[in-house]
Design a protein that fits this description.
- The chain is about 35% helix and about 30% strand.
- It is α+β, with helices and mostly antiparallel strands.
- The protein has a single domain (about 5-144), classed as Hut operon positive regulatory protein HutP (3-Layer(aba) Sandwich).
- A hairpin with a 6-residue loop joins strand 3 (about 115-125) and strand 4 (about 135-144).
- Helix 3 packs across helix 4 (about 65-80).
């Protein structure tokens, strides 16, 4: 069970969220991807925006529990990175402005390893006052 060097799903998700020219690399692999933006003082709204984008762009089938569940865990893992382990926003006077990338594909050489999903987040987090934020990045990967 080894990862293919040109199929690093997390790396492609991160590069795509930072520079949209990398989306063509995902297309070449025949994988699914979408990119979007979300800003909120509530973490549940961040999760909802990413889930909605994944369903709308047919990255996941919303009526299949394992797909929604895998996406949820990838989102939460990415949010842990952005929020430094404390997935709280408005309740502790923090807000985020994020760009996200969702990538679904088969990163392993063995077909039996199945599909995986990666969520990359990049943007700002800070006090809800313009100019009092800093950059943050997060990545979550989960099997489907």
């Amino acid at each position: 069970m080894s990862l293919s060097e040109e199929k690093l799903i997390g790396k492609l998700a991160m590069l795509s969220v930072l520079d949209e020219t990398y989306t063509s690399h995902v297309d070449v692999l025949g994988w699914q991807q979408c990119i979007g933006k979300v800003g909120s003082m509530e973490s549940n709204k961040v999760v909802a925006a990413i889930e909605t984008a994944a369903k709308k762009n047919e990255i996941i089938n919303g009526s299949v529990y394992r797909e929604t569940h895998a996406l949820y865990h990838a989102i939460m893992e990415a949010l842990h990175g952005v929020t430094r382990g404390q997935v709280q926003l408005g309740t502790v006077l923090r807000t985020v402005g994020l760009k996200f990338s969702i990538v679904r594909g088969t990163p392993y050489e063995k077909e039996a390893e199945g599909e995986w999903i990666a969520v990359a987040l990049y943007g700002t987090i800070g006090a809800p006052v313009k100019g009092l934020e800093h950059e943050a990045i997060g990545l979550g990967i989960n099997h489907i």
